[in-house]
Amino acid sequence: MKNQKFYLFLFAWLLFGTMAVVSSCSKTEDTKPQVNADKTKLTAVIDSVTAIHNAAVEGTKPGTYSTGSKATFKTAIDLGTGVKNDAAATQAAVNTSVANLRRAAATFATSLIQEVSAANLVAHWKFAGNANDATANGNNGVLKTGPAGAAPKFPTPPADGTTLPMLTADRFGRASQAYEFAGGGYIEVPYKAALNPQALTLSVWCKRNDTNPDNYLVSLNRWTGYKFQLQGDNKPFLTVTTTSTTADRDADSGIVPVNVWTHVASSYVDGTMKFYINGALVKTWTNVTGAIKAIPEPVNLTIGQQLPKDVYNRAPKGGQAPDYFQYYSPAFFKGQMDDIRIYNRALTDAEVQSIYTIESTL
After folding, report:
1. How far is residue 261 CA from its own chain's centroid?
2. Is the whole-model pTM more than 0.70?
3. pLDDT value for 36
4. Rounded mean pLDDT of 116-122?
């Protein structure tokens, strides 16, 4: 982090200095060659941009630079170094070289891959050995066993499946970097109002190992809130309760294959619901209106289960129907999940594609 701040400072210094260099170039300097040019500033800029270049790493993750950007930057540095080493270089040429290097540094800075909409990222569960939230928001998950059997006579609580989610290899084969869900096990996240935004985007990597009409990915109070699942045709399926209605929509032609790691995402904002498979937009619905409502009572968010197990078959406290929390049948995910994100706005198509690009490579 200290190194990152230092290089950001260098970028700022280089950019600020551009105006000073431009203003220092007078007509006299342009028309009267000076063989004894002052190269102090050029030397300092070359040293600074070289340090930035050498410290930069190319890749596809936030904090790295896009592939090929370093080579372009190095070409500009080499040109500046050539002017520095040229004993016949005029002051005008030196000043122009400084300005060019600063512009090259500014261009290179734009190739830095940023986290997608970091200010709107409510939670990001990377499952890197645990269920903690990777953001500073502290939405850490807790591993729980959950119901997996037939429904008892209401209001008797359902039987516990006694199975916790288990760490497993992720889509790159790295051990303990994803979770396997089976037997009703799920991850429970304590309720916060921030987890119940008026608009949202849900992004999940999943590998289903079964066809199940209630393959729940993420749920906040099921349909009186929002729920994201795979339905019986293995299509991503989003339900939201808005100020106008409760709406269920699916990805239409988008199918999640069995035993294949697949990126699925869905977004909702008043008037528009979208579905994405592996970064590509597959369906847009425009017949749902209203902002997402706040849930009637605090209920913890669940990953891999429809509701928290201690909520099933209890009496509601927010004015819902007496049987609102009734347990009907098993509604847990069967398979593996990784890299789950919740945003408090509807991301653009390009932003969802960026998440897929960032997360589909090591």
Report:
1. 17
2. yes
3. 85
4. 97
Confidence of residue 35 (pLDDT cuts 50, 70, 90): low
| Whole-angstrom distance, CA of residue 80 vs CA of residue 105 | 12
Q: What tokens does 297 get?
A: 């009572």
Round to whole Å and give the CA distance between 58 and 179: 29
**Domains of the chain: residue spans and CATH:** 2-110 (1.20.1270.90), 118-359 (2.60.120.200)
How many whole angstroms separate alpha carbon 345 and alpha carbon 359? Answer: 20
> Which pLDDT belongs to residue 306?
97
13-22, 81-90, 192-201, 338-347: least confident range? 13-22
Compute CA distances 255 → 101, 208, 233, 278, whole Å.
49, 11, 8, 11
Cis peptide before 147 (omega within 30 of 0): no
Handedness of CA 96, 98, 101, 107 (dihedral sign): negative
- Return the HEC string of the chain: CHHHHHHHHHHHHHHHHHHHHHHHCCHHHHHCCCCCCCCHHHHHHHHHHHHHHHHCCECCCCCCECCCHHHHHHHHHHHHHHHHCCCCCCHHHHHHHHHHHHHHHHHHHHCECCCCCHHHEEEEECCCCCCCECCCCCCCCEEECCECCCCCCCCCCCCECCCCCEEECCCCCCCCCEEEECCCCEEEECCCHHHCCCCEEEEEEEEECCCCCCEEEEEECCCCCEEEEECCCCCEEEEEEECCCEEEEECCCCCCCCCCCEEEEEEEECCEEEEEECCEEEEEECCCCCCECCCCCCCCEEECECCCCCCCCCCCCCCCCCCCCCCCCCCECCEEEEEEEEECCCCCHHHHHHHHHHHCCC
